[in-house]
Amino acid sequence: MRLHDIAHARTGDKGDISNISLIAYDVAHWPLIRDSVTPEQLAMHFGTFAAENVTRYDLPQLHALNFVIRGALTGGVTRSLALDAHGKCLASVLLEMEISSHGDP
Fold it and tell me: Nearest to residue 45, comparing CAs of 72, 82, 6, 23?
């Protein structure tokens, strides 16, 4: 299954740092999301930054994860020539990640 089947996401940015919040639609899917979407899996999915640049914060009360990604925006809004300098499409890219319905990445 793809993450967009069980979660939605929001992004934000500050300089060259992007953050992505991944929120379960249903509390029943929270353990699957928590176990499947690690900094390593996220970095591998994007393929453009190292897992060491990704910090994950668990927000169990909200059934959500927040990922802070340093160096994700090629310099940030005022420096980047990227089409998406704010990183707004990063949430959509993350939601395309395939995960096992059993929690195995």
Answer: 72
- Indicate the helix (H) or strand (E) that contains 40: helix 39-46
pTM above 0.85, yes or no: no
Per-residue model confidence as pLDDT tens digits over 57-92:
999 999 999 999 998 776 655 544 444 444 556 767
Task: Note the pLDDT of residue 5.
Answer: 94
3-95 in CATH: which number? Answer: 3.30.70
CA 13/CA 32 separation, integer angstroms: 26
Tell me the residue ranges of DSSP E strands in 1-105.
7-14, 17-24, 54-59, 64-70
Torsional class of 39: left (φ above 0), alpha (ψ -120 to 50), beta (otherwise): alpha
67, 20 contact by CB (below 8 A): yes
pLDDT at 88: 55
The rounded distance, in Å, linking the Cα atoms of 68 and 39 is 9
